Amino acid sequence: MADAVVVGQYIEGQSLLHKLDPRTKFISMLAIMLWMTIIQKPLEYVIATVVVFFLIGLSRLQIVLYWKALQPALLILLFTVMYHAFLSPGEQLIWEWGVLQLTKEGIVAGIQFVWRIVLLILLASILTFSTKPLTLALGVEMLLKPFKKLGFPVQQFSLMISIALRFIPTILEELKRIQLAQKSRGLDVAQYNQLKQLYMYFFLLIPLLYSVIQRAETLSDAIDSRAYGDGRNRTHYQELCLTYIDYSLFILVWLLVSVGIFVRVQSG
Q: Residues 82-100: pLDDT tens digits?
């Protein structure tokens, strides 16, 4: 499991984060993520990094799992750094070639943007690694329960979240299975250069898309056969209950985020 770990996959554990109510984790992570969207100064990035790694420590999971969750995004992160470094305007010019201008301000902007994305991915990983998809969906359903009076399909929305989280690792596993099947037939994408690999992946997307659609239809038939309906008068096997630890952590996180937002506003 550790070799194929991705965001959306639950990792069994007995840590404090694993035992927290999903509503506490969801709201706390959302508050931290919103705070991270407004940080700008290096000190704020350092504090945000300390907070994230403190939560990683609380999860009591191997750090390599979080590294594996970041790996699928490495190419996008590298492109983001290059984009900001060469196309962002700046006064301190380092290198220039045609329309491309490498500036100190662009490099700083690229590093800060990627730093923020990495922290957000790690936060999402902490949430999904320590929370079962069905439990997380139930927590979201309980949080959105007041909107049911306005006609919002709360049960369907929570089911959609649960299925989406569960299908992330499933799709990647299916992609690996297709790669192995085509490799056994003589099509090894790894033997080509990177540009050729992008073109060769087209031959993987077609069977992958077919498999995903087939799985979706099977899942839809399974839901209909169990008379899921519109969710009215539906009961749950697991009942959520907030404890004093949930309230304490919830208050602590919101105090820290409030202080961070206040400092950000005051510093301009």
A: 887 777 776 777 776 766 7
- The Cα 46–Cα 44 span in angstroms is 5
- Paired with 96 in beta bridges are 101
Residues 6+ apart with CB under 8 A from 109: 84, 85, 88
CA dist 45 and 51 (Å) reads 10
Half-sphere exposure of 222 (CA within 13 A, CB side): 7
Q: What residues contact 173, with CB distance under 8 A and at least 6 apart?
A: 4
Note the pTM of the prediction, 2 decimals.
0.75
Q: What is the pLDDT of residues 102-137, one digit of tens each?
A: 887 888 888 888 999 999 999 988 988 998 877 888
Residue 144, classified by CB atoms within 10 Å of its CB into exposed (0-12), middle (13-18) or buried (19+), is middle
